[in-house]
Specification:
Number of helices: 3
Radius of gyration: 14 Å
Shape: globular
Distance between the termini: 36 Å
Helix content: 25-40%
């Protein structure tokens, strides 16, 4: 899958990117995006297209400022952990810019 929102950055090809996509700024800051995080991002784009560019800019800003980041669906259960990288969830990107989104794509809690 091509993450076209990040075509302006360097695509990382290393041992960490066989399952998740990695990107690097020209100045060296790196970030990775788990597939489930990207799915959340695409669902958000469908529901709030007017805020999508704002969220992408905040994601890039956060990754740049924090230097080494992995954007994860659940920081308690990340796909990978890399020493020195911070784990951030979707709300860590959207809350600082007052954009709120409830991902209701998870399974039902009924029937238990």
């Amino acid at each position: 899958m091509n993450y076209e929102e990040f075509n302006d950055l360097i695509s990382l090809q290393d041992e960490h990117t066989s399952f998740i996509r990695g990107f690097q700024f020209p100045t060296g800051e790196k970030f990775y995006i788990e597939p489930t995080f990207y799915t959340q991002l695409m669902i958000f784009k469908e529901i709030q297209p007017e805020n999508f560019d704002k969220v992408i800019q905040q994601l890039k800003k956060t990754a740049f400022e924090r230097k080494n980041v992995i954007f994860v669906n659940d920081f308690e259960n990340p796909f990978i952990e890399i020493e020195g990288f911070k784990l951030l969830e979707f709300t860590d990107v959207t809350d600082p810019i007052n954009v709120y989104f409830e991902d209701k794509s998870r399974g039902s809690d009924y029937g238990d």
